[in-house]
Each structure stands twice: as structure tokens, then as C-alpha cells.
Amino acid sequence: MKKVDVVLGLQWGDEGKGKIVDVLASRYKAVARFQGGPNAGHSICIGDSSFVLHSVPSGIFRADTVNFIGNGVVVDPVILMEEIRGIEAAGVKVEGRLLIAKRANLILPTHRVLDATNEAHKGKGKIGSTLKGIGPAYTDKIARTGLRVGDIASADFRSKYEALRDWHLIQIEALGYKDFDISEYEAKWFEAARELLRFDIIDNEVAVNRCLADDVAILAEGAQGSLLDIDFGTYPFVTSSNTLCAGACTGLGVAPSRIGEVFGIFKAYCTRVGSGPFPTELFDETGETMRRIGHEYGATTGRSRRCGWLDLVALNYAVMMNGATSLIMMKADVMNDFDTIKVCVGYELDGKPVHHFPYEAGDADIKPVYKEFPGWKCDISGVRSYDALPQQLKDYIGFIEDFTGVRIDIVSVGPDRDQTIER
Ligand code: GDP
Ligand code: IMO
Ligand code: MG
Known about the structure:
By secondary structure, the chain is an alpha/beta fold. It is built from eleven helices and 20 strands.
């Protein structure tokens, strides 16, 4: 019996999950997305080609893998079909290799309008949603009013759709929101939903457990990051799903005892896109340099990402809740020219020291306590062995390992598949 190994982000998303899943997928026959939806943007660089995946699992560029979109994912047929066409245009076979859960909930065109309505209603307190309809789609799932991928093939799909759409329109009208027209998107949505039927629409919980029983290990691909988790993230500035390892169980239909390795990914610094607390955020030249050199602009919305120092208090919190068994550090190369590198090792909350990520993160005045490291001041993007990394970077890595109690097994030194160092 094989297990499900999980790759997930330990920060606020965009840690480099797409790159690492693509790298690790060469060792797996199956890759599975288990939560989130097209709010995700997972970048993959293979030589001169680069792709951004929103809904399709990042194992798709490894010809020997099958790729599951699990029941925990929310699917917008328009975005998914556009993405599939792009991948097929690059000469990659998708049919027969993409399996979509019947139980995955659908994002309707009106979910996108509701997202915009809710954000407009919040005004200054807006979440900074990607506006892909994620929150409203999960709201319908929990309210037991949603439509699912398995409904597409049913004879009364259109009438089910219209009933839910009309219910949304009542809510939108009540909020006085008028500036929208879904007719064009709705037509594309039906066309795309029908086209999805050329892929395998399955009971994923059965298929996934059959894989494991047949000795096929699965790599589960998290979206967003641990600090955007609906329960444990910086609520309400979070996404609407469980981004933690536990989400892989409910989002695929596997028991906790079937989870194997938990690969936790983090950047050597920290970023966040959208609103919400970020204790180590930099508003100065250093933050600007991270953004410029790290190309820290959203892969889904193009928004600039907020940048700051690595926060080990927040990282430890994420490591704890995920039970991370292995750490993967990304983008240290972005700090090649830094004279000094800071890392947050504690907080002061209202003048008192705290060593855990506090519930009050949103409201209180958190002051990070930093430890400083000398920079390595050389280009590491061409380094391919751990031993050849500069001692200053090894010291930085050693400190993080001691602080978290988990080994850093992979160090990524550039966006390409090849720029990956395994210890
Ligand atoms: P994801 O959402 O976690 O998959 O991450 P994104 O794709 O949104 O953002 C990560 C960005 O960093 C992408 O542009 C990647 O191509 C890039 N990237 C990944 N790993 C590295 C690395 O080690 N160094 C550098 N410089 N860029 C990287
Ligand atoms: P990947 O998988 C970074 C953020 C949004 C917003 C909040 C809620 O690429 O790491 P939503 O659209 O879910 O209503 O947005 O969550 N967010 C992400 N930030 N990476 C992501 O995905 C994100 N998905 C959502 O910016 O603050
Ligand atoms: Mg991303």
C-alpha cells in the first residue's frame, strides 16, 4: 500500500509549489490538486518554455503521470478549458491524463460577480480576493446549494444552473450592485462545461484509493499557503479552503493514515498578495529589491506582491500544523547581493515577547525581533550541489533547521527545473 505525499506552501502562497511539484512529479505516477481553484497560479519553467497553471495539476508536463482534480477543488469550466487548450497547444496530451472529481463544486459566472460585490461592500476592509469566485463557490458548497462537476452530464443541468444563478441575482440586486453583464461569460461557461465531458469525470475517492492499493504513490499539490487557511490563517484575510495537509484528506477522500511525506515549501524571504497582517513586511528599498529581483508580481492577477524578511515564528506555526517532514527552501538566489539578511525569531506584542503566531495578529501591533546574518554576496543560480553553496547560506539554512526542527532537503536556486539542489 503506497501513500499520498503532500507538497504545500508554508507562507502566504506563491512559494514555488508549481516548480517543485513539476520537479518531484518525475518520481510519481499520479499528481492531485485537493483544494482551492483558479485563484492559484503555479509557474513552471522548462528550458525556454514557461507555463502558469491555475486548475490543472503541475504534474501535467511529465508524460507518465495522471493528474487528478480532487473533490476539494472548485472548478471554473471556462478557466479550466482555456488552460487545457494552452497545454494542448504546447503539444502535451491531456485527454486520458486528466481525471476530474464528480464531487468538485463548480464556480458559476455569478460567483465571480458575488465575489466582486462582497469585496466592494467591504470597502477598505476588503480581502484583496483574486475575484475568481472562490469564496462564493465554497459558500454554496457549505450551504449545500452548490452545483458539482458530476451535475454537468445530468438532463436538468441547465435548470439547476438557472435556479442557482437566479438566487445569486437576488442577492446581488439586494446589495445594489448593477454594473455587470454575465451573458457572454455564461455562454462560454456552458460550452466549456460541455467540453469538460471529454475528460474522465470520476469518483476520485475510489480512484485515488485504488492507486494506493495498487502501489502507486500520489503527490498531492497544495494551493495557496498555510497562513491563508480558512481556520488557521490570518482570518478574515484568508482563502475559503483548508490549505493545510489535513485538506488533502478531505479534498481527495483519503484517510489521515494514508498521508506519507509532507513537503513544506517556503521562500528564503516572505511575500503576500492582497490584504492582511504581515509582521515582517518591508516598506523600504530592500523590499523593493526583493520584488524586482524576485519578480514578485502575482501569477494570477499581476498585482505586486508585498515583500519582507523570513518569519520563523509564522513558519514554525505552519510546520506544526502540517506536520512537515521535510522542508524545501526557494529563491535564496534573489538575495545574492544582500549585505545583510534578517530573519524574525520572535515577536513583541503590545510590548511583551511572544513566541507563537498569535490570534491577535490582525489587530495588535506586532513588532518582529530579528537576528541578522551576513549575506553570501555571490551568484548561486548556477550552483548544483549542496556542498558548493556558500558557507553563509549554509549557516542560514542550519539556523532555520535548528529553529524548526525539520531538515531542508531541497534548495531551489532559480525558476528552472534544473536549478534544484537536493541534499
Ligand atoms: P506557486 O504559486 O507556489 O506555484 O508559486 P508562483 O509560481 O506563483 O511564484 C513563484 C515564482 O518564483 C514563479 O515566478 C517561479 O518561476 C519563481 N521561482 C520558483 N523557484 C524559484 C527560485 O528558486 N528562484 C527564483 N529566482 N525564482 C523561482
Ligand atoms: P497560489 O496557489 C497567493 C490570496 C488573495 C487574497 C486571499 C483571498 O498561487 O500560491 P481568494 O481569491 O481566495 O478569495 O483570495 O488569498 N490568494 C493567494 N495569494 N497565492 C495564491 O495561490 C493565492 N490564492 C489566493 O490574494 O489575499
Ligand atoms: Mg502562485
